[in-house]
Design brief:
With 316 residues, the chain is of the alpha/beta class. The chain has a single domain, classed as Aldolase class I (TIM Barrel), CATH 3.20.20. It has helices spanning 14-18, 28-40, 63-69, 85-93, 107-114, 118-134, 157-170, 186-197, 216-225, 253-262, 271-285, 292-300, 305-315, and strands spanning 9-12, 45-46, 80-81, 99-104, 139-144, 174-179, 205-209, 230-233. Helix 10 (253-262) runs antiparallel to helix 11. The radius of gyration is 18 Å and the shape is globular. It starts with 8 loop residues before the first strand and ends with a helix. Bound molecules: 3-hydroxy-3-methylglutaryl-coenzyme A and magnesium ion. Residues 17, 178, 180, 208, 210, 239, 241, 250 line the site of magnesium ion (MG).
């Protein structure tokens, strides 16, 4: 066991994973302000949007406008998600300097999420990789359903390890292991990560937990113990996947950073600024934050208390 890392790089995915899952598309200006505030709070990697089909994810159809509007800080990386060559061309035209690709460890999820089998999706990734090489762009790889699939149930760790190895061999500098529907628990997460780390070095792996069953922080703690040092998270716990039934928000960035700082693990993030950013986006969404820290701050702020009471009454 490698042991807890001294520092962790948090990959902030709210502007992509979070906003892809909202019923309504938010105004472009709000997305831009969210990303700029995230940059101000000290995050070093902020996923901006995705260049997927606007028919599949209309919420992010303004990816190019968001890219053009953000105030890019020199020390911050701003990757975008791309599903295929067409998305890659759009990302390049929009001035992206880093992209992320995605595949799944479940055939059924792959079909539902990208209208392609796993092997077809790897072929699409090959096409993206060759454009990335031509343009000198680093590529991050996501692997979904690593601890369970909404359609197929359990997924074997060996399948996940083999696909992670394929993505690494194709040139992805890092593989983010996604518990898309938050099905995992700590020992299962450790087993999966240990199996994958036999094929891909731990310092090329990241973890991406959705908190559907309230296990995300426990799973993250278990993976930290094995030495993982890159963790995806989403401010206010926004997130989900429109093509994964039952997927809810990502682990909340604020709660993750609270955990990490409490363990004396450095992140470079200003937690107060991050909590404020969570409140900002929740006001725009007219929603109480999904993060526990955000909920404390929400109760304290001078904000339409009436509204909170009203929605509580409506639920009764
Ligand atoms: P398709 O319908 O099979 O695409 O979708 P196609 O190649 O047959 O093309 C159909 C039309 O779409 C054509 O237009 C293409 O040009 C157009 P037409 O000729 O009919 O006018 N098209 C595009 N337009 C814009 N941008 C593009 C693009 N590609 C094709 N990139 C496709 C295939 C992959 C595009 C579609 O299935 C798709 O966009 N899927 C993405 C779904 C998605 O975004 N899911 C969420 C992200 S993954 C996730 O959240 C998991 C993660 O967080 C990790 C975890 O939690 O596990 C990463
Ligand atoms: Mg996700």
């Amino acid at each position: 066991m490698k042991g807890f890392p001294k520092s962790v790089r948090v990959v902030e995915v709210s502007a992509r994973d979070g906003l892809q899952n909202e019923k309504q598309a938010l105004p472009t200006a709000v997305k831009i302000e969210l990303i700029d505030r995230l940059g101000e709070s000290g995050l070093s990697t902020i996923e901006v949007s995705s260049f997927v089909s606007p028919r599949w994810v209309p919420q992010l159809a303004d990816a190019a406008e968001v890219m053009a509007g953000i105030n890019k800080k020199p020390a911050v990386r701003y990757p975008v998600l791309v599903p295929n060559e067409k998305g890659m061309q759009r990302a390049i035209a929009a001035g992206a300097s880093e992209v992320a690709v995605f595949a799944a460890a479940s055939e059924t999820f792959s079909k539902k999420n990208s209208n392609a089998s796993i092997s077809e999706s790897l072929q699409r990734i090959e096409a993206v990789m060759s454009l990335a090489k031509e343009n000198g762009m680093p590529v991050r790889g996501y692997l979904s359903c690593v601890l369970g699939c909404p359609y197929e149930g359990d997924i074997g760790a060996a399948v996940v390890a083999e696909l992670a190895e394929r993505l690494a061999a194709m040139g992805c500098y890092e593989i983010s292991l996604g518990d898309t529907i938050g099905a995992g628990t700590p020992f299962g997460a450790q087993k999966m990560l240990t199996t994958v780390a036999e094929k891909v070095p731990m310092d090329e792996l990241a973890i991406h937990f959705h908190d559907t069953r309230g296990q995300a922080l426990a799973n993250i703690y278990a993976c930290l113990e094995l030495g993982v040092s890159v963790i995806d998270a989403s401010v206010a716990g926004l997130g989900g996947c429109p093509y994964a039934k039952g997927a809810s928000g990502n682990v909340a960035s604020e709660d993750l950073v609270y955990l990490l700082h409490g363990m004396a693990i450095e992140t470079g993030i200003d937690l107060d600024a991050l909590v404020d950013t969570g409140l900002y986006i929740c006001r725009r969404l007219d929603r109480i934050p999904g993060s526990r820290l955000g909920q404390i701050a929400w109760r304290k702020q001078d904000f339409p208390q009436e509204k909170i009471c009203k929605s509580a009454k409506q639920k009764q």
